[in-house]
Structure formats: structure tokens, C-alpha cells
Design brief:
single chain, alpha+beta, Alpha-Beta Plaits, 4 domains, four-stranded antiparallel β-sheet, 9 helices, elongated
Length: about 270
């Protein structure tokens, strides 16, 4: 019996078969997994090192080059590309296709541990990341309003970011854009020379006065209290009153040789 004859003699059966096929197609289509990028293990790793306050040349000489030299001994490397910019060093390592990235990253971290003691003390610990296309953010949210850009950024960081991070499935939330608050200390070279004050002394004085310290413990009856000394700056006037040098000639403060401004990061867009 041919298919047309079967369709004529068994119409109900044919209709049921067609409906079953349509139903399976509809269910399969709704559960079809779509992905813009295939599941590839791209053999690329990045090493990011933050060094706040350093310029590109210092980053290149003190951070980027030592990391490049130690990473050049890692096996299966095809190329090493680096970029040194203000406050940050970026080293991109490309391995041969087929490299076991778990083992390669382990070797990279071992080399980083070797070079870490030779990096500047103020430099943060280098971070090693594996390049993963599926790890890129897939949702971007824009925040607009009549408020200044630095206030919008503050709202995003203090109110929106932590709420988004608590959502199931969200790995991380990054705030980009706006203007970030920054205190600028503009030194007067003439006054520094007149008072015989070097830049190192100014930096040390500012760092030493901006600390929260533990003051020990106090026992009162059955209770024990922890004592903390809070010394972080709360205003521009506190920075201006920081003592740089005390001698028989008098006390020299930051305001004697510099102007302190409550401003924003100049590298960020307004």
C-alpha cells in the first residue's frame, strides 16, 4: 500500500502523525540552545598587575619587563604581547593550539610567584586570567539622569551594583563610566626647595597619616574591648594639616607647600 492510499484510507492516523511531528518540532524549537560563540578553549591568558601612582615608563621598566622575562620560559608559548599604561601592566600570553590550559596556567602562576618578590612593594599581586569568550558580560545597563556624572557613578556603586551581584547566575558586576572622586595634591616646587623638603618626605607623610591602626585591648570586668585608632582622611583640611617636617625653624605642613583639591580622576570622561 502506497503512502497516498494509506492517507486516504487512514485519515485519522495520518492527522495524528502530523500533529505529533508538529508538537515535537514546537517543543524542540522552544528548548533549542542558542549561543553566539562556540564552546572553544582559546589558548590565551592575561596577567594584570596594578601599580597605583606609577606612570607608563615606570610600569614598563619595573613591572612589565620582569614579568615578560620570567614568562618567556613557560612552555608552548606562541607569542607574548604587553601593554604598559598609567597604574596598570597588561601581559597577554598566546599558547599553541591544543595546549592544556589548566597546566599552562598553573605554570604561569608558578613563574609569577618567582618574580613577585622582585616587583615594587606598592604593586599589587599580579592576577592571572584565562581568556574565555563565554565569560564576557552579556547585559549592559545604562544609568541616566539629571545628576552629575560622579553622583550617578556613586549611586551605581553603592546601591545598584550590590543588588545585581545578589541575583542568581550573576558572576560579577563592573561599573564603568562616570567620574570617580580623587584628591589632588599640587606641590609648589619653589616652596619645596625653599623649605628643603623632598618629594619622598611628602609621600611618606601622607601615607603615614592615612592609616587605621589597632590600639590593643582593654579589659573591663568580664568584658574585653578592642581599641582602634582611626586615622583615615575625612576632609581636605585634614590633608592640608598633615605635618611634613618639625624642626627648630618651625612646623611645615602640606598646606605650606601644596594646594589640595577635591576633584575627579582626570583620565575619566566627564
Amino acid at each position: 500500500m502506497s503512502l497516498p492510499q494509506l492517507a486516504v484510507k487512514r485519515p485519522v492516523t495520518i492527522v495524528m502523525l502530523v500533529l505529533i511531528v508538529l508538537l515535537l518540532g514546537f517543543v524542540s524549537f522552544n528548548h533549542l540552545y542558542m549561543e553566539l560563540l562556540p564552546d572553544l578553549e582559546i589558548p590565551v591568558a592575561t596577567v594584570i598587575t596594578d601599580y597605583t601612582g606609577a606612570g607608563p615608563q615606570e610600569i614598563e621598566n619595573l613591572v612589565t619587563r620582569p614579568i615578560e622575562e620570567v614568562l618567556s620560559t613557560v612552555g608552548s608559548i606562541e607569542s607574548v604581547i604587553s601593554r604598559s599604561e598609567r597604574d596598570q601592566s597588561l601581559v597577554i600570553i598566546q599558547f599553541d593550539w591544543g595546549t592544556d590550559m589548566d597546566f599552562a596556567l598553573l605554570e604561569v602562576r608558578e613563574k609569577i610567584d618567582i618574580i613577585k618578590p622582585y616587583l615594587p612593594e606598592d604593586a599589587k599581586t599580579p592576577r592571572v586570567f584565562r581568556f574565555n569568550p563565554n565569560a564576557f558580560p552579556i547585559v549592559e545597563i545604562g544609568l541616566f539622569g539629571d545628576l552629575p556624572s560622579h553622583e550617578l557613578r556613586h549611586i551605581a556603586e553603592t546601591q545598584i551594583k550590590n543588588r545585581l551581584e545578589r541575583i542568581d547566575g550573576v558572576a560579577s558586576v563592573e561599573v564603568v563610566g562616570g567620574r570617580e572622586r580623587e584628591i589632588h595634591v599640587r606641590l609648589d616646587p619653589g616652596k619645596m626647595q625653599a623649605y628643603n623638603i623632598g618629594l619622598d618626605r611628602v609621600v611618606q607623610a601622607l601615607a603615614a597619616a592615612n592609616l587605621n591602626l589597632t590600639g590593643g585591648q582593654v579589659q573591663q570586668g568580664s568584658r574585653e574591648y578592642l581599641v582602634r585608632i582611626e586615622g583615615l582622611y575625612n576632609s581636605v583640611s585634614e590633608i592640608e594639616d598633615v605635618v611634613i617636617m618639625a624642626s627648630a625653624a618651625g612646623v611645615r605642613r602640606i598646606k605650606d607647600i601644596a594646594t589640595v583639591e577635591d576633584s575627579f580622576n582626570l583620565d575619566q570622561a566627564s
